[in-house]
Design a protein that fits this description.
Two copies of one chain form a homodimer.
Chain A: E1 2-8, E2 11-18, E3 21-25, E4 27-29, H1 42-48, E5 52-56, H2 57-62, H3 66-71, H4 75-79, E6 84-88, H5 91-96, E7 99-103, E8 108-111, E9 118-121, H6 123-133, E10 137-139, H7 151-171, E11 178-183, H8 189-202, E12 206-209, H9 218-229, E13 238-240, H10 246-254, E14 259-261, H11 264-270, E15 273-276, E16 279-282, H12 302-306, H13 309-317, H14 321-347, H15 351-364
Parallel strand pairs in A: 4-14, 5-6, 6-10, 10-11, 11-12, 12-13, 13-14
Antiparallel strand pairs in A: 1-2, 2-3, 7-8, 8-9, 15-16
Helix pairs in contact in A: 7-8, 8-9, 11-14, 13-14, 14-15
């Protein structure tokens, strides 16, 4: 299903063929937690160009619940989204959001952060849930190791993640939808390598790298990425979960990553933090009140073509919801364009120069 | 500028030619308080079909302020709206929102409801403000009489409103933009008639009816509309300010009203109150959680074509902003279609039958 089209050193351009269309890589997936990318309609996402979005099993399980999504014949028709959907396994949310979690080899028991109700996730039932969502890519349940973590615990947890991946594979053998596993291993290079190797033996459709961007130094993250990708097959997509900043995306692409997701463009937008080719803009600053320029002169999105920084400032300052929507639309357009530009540069064997130019322009003026 | 095209008893179909395009009447104007119809982009409003929106002088004066709107070369370019704009005079907001107001024949001094700052509105300066906004229709400053009000006060206040209308006319004689005056007179038929007659002598481009829908019985409102319109010229548009419910719009059209504005479709949408051809729907009700039907089968708006009641319920229940936007889009589409249907019925000499059919369907099932 994944075709590697071109490499520029370790950077890769490919095509991932899924049930709801082709995904050119490297790709960024907007996060649609509750079956909606906050403030965006499915038509907005299509208009920007995204061929795939992410949604969260943990959140969908709690609201609207499996029964509702089954009633609506899956997540695509529920949210009227014709593109692809990847759902995470809920592992990360159970470890970051849920209350009173108790993990055993069998699975994880936790209390909902909404109403305290008790739930149980196992490798098998999160596969069943995602199958019911009708998504295009399902993620296996993993344990996300906190940072810092001692090596004994990291080793034990990584073994469990691998065991869970195996159980997921055994539980669900069909190739439709695709199943991706998750490389863990904490911040230990040898554990990452070992985890990657053992997961590759299980033969998944794609390989994610989890448990990064959890507070560690950037260089440590980059080393863990390299340690993980070194043992991943070239003909399968690699997905760095929960990342991230444009600079992190560029550094990860340089290390052979194909897929990304992050709440940053959407969450920052709702706080007035906007990404531009010249760096970040905080639209709440009063210096933008009398400014009739577009947010980003290099951006051709609907917002930059039609609205000024002054109007965006006015909307944000006065808590007008349209402001949060326009901010989100722009930030997602920025990430979409960034990935497109990265892909073009790779195909032209020009990635490192592109990265250098982008970062010079992006960092110097912020 | 106004052409009366057809009458069906007292109901009228016309065309109002303004700087930013032709407005077929009867028309409903969405309310864009702060230079934005809450949750809607200007493109959304255009897509629904609105040829004109309303904005509020009082609010714009306070935020972003005259200086900002002048900097952006007017309200149209500030909000990227290519259609027409009518601004009210601020009179109603000064009397309903502002603090510590003091009214004299000269004008009204008040404190901002935002920060308590002191301001002064006169017939002359609100004309100047609206001219700077660059709008298509300007409203004269009036005093909105509370309800109930004794006749002496109503008489005195109505005289002041007429005097202010005269001063506005003297201050601003050009015909571009158009200036509308406002018939007041409280709930007194003779004062309404007298006010209408005296304003007509001053010869305005259009005549609004203000001070209604302020808590009075519906029949009293209808009587006041009839008392006002009886003396208004047939060849000028008539605008019932701040109304309203579909049933009120129908009854007012029946009495010869051409123009309407109201926050109801937009405000109700944000509270989950949705208008449908079968009556009102409160989308927060759990009965909609498993419902894959469109909100209104008779509606062809973007929301009804693409999303289910179940999804709208999910979004609303989980406080997703997209829900408020889709609700608003639908409600405005409902009002737009209602006005279009009313206009077609008038042109077919079929208004009363249309009204009867609409209300039977609309009321019976709520």
């Amino acid at each position: 299903m994944f075709k590697l089209e071109h490499t520029d050193k370790a950077a890769r351009a490919g095509r991932l063929k899924l049930k709801h269309g082709i995904v050119p890589t490297p790709i960024f997936m907007p996060v649609g937690t509750l079956g909606v990318v906050k403030t965006m309609s499915s038509e907005d996402l299509k208009e920007i160009g995204f061929p795939i979005i992410l949604s969260n099993t943990y959140h969908l399980w709690l609201r609207p619940g499996i029964e509702a999504i089954e009633y609506f014949k899956g997540l695509h028709s529920f949210m009227n989204w014709g593109g692809n959907i990847l759902t995470d396994s809920g592992g990360f949310q159970v470890f970051s959001l849920a209350l009173l979690r108790k993990i055993t080899d069998e699975g994880v028991t936790f209390q909902s952060h909404i109403d305290g109700s008790r739930h149980f996730f196992s490798p098998e039932n999160v596969m069943d849930m995602q199958k019911k969502f009708g998504v295009d890519i399902m993620m296996v349940l993993d344990e996300c190791i906190g940072y810092p973590a001692d090596k004994d615990y990291a080793q034990k947890s990584t073994n469990r993640t691998i065991e869970w991946a195996k159980r997921s594979r055994d539980h669900y053998k069909k190739n439709d939808p695709q199943m991706f596993c998750i490389v863990q291993g904490g911040m230990y290079e040898d554990l990452r390598q070992d985890c990657a190797r053992r997961l590759v033996d299980l033969d998944f459709a794609g390989y994610a790298i989890g448990g990064l961007s959890v507070g560690e130094e950037n260089d440590l993250m980059y080393n863990m990425i390299s340690a993980s990708t070194a043992f991943l097959p070239v003909n399968k997509p690699r997905y760095l979960m929960g990342v991230g900043e444009p600079v992190d995306i560029l550094n990860a692409v340089e290390r052979g990553i194909d897929m990304f997701d992050c709440v940053m463009p959407t969450r920052n937008a709702r706080n007035g933090g906007l990404f531009t080719s010249k760096g970040n803009v905080s639209i709440k600053k009063s210096e933008y009140s009398l400014n009739d320029e577009p947010l980003d002169e290099d951006c051709e999105c609907f917002v930059c073509k039609n609205y000024s920084k002054g109007y965006l400032h006015h909307l944000f300052k006065n808590k007008e919801m349209l402001g949060l929507r326009l901010n989100t639309y722009h930030n997602l357009s920025f990430f979409y364009k960034l990935m497109n530009d990265i892909r073009s540069a790779i195909i032209r064997d020009n990635f490192l120069l592109f990265k250098k130019d982008f970062l010079e322009k992006y960092v110097c003026t912020t």
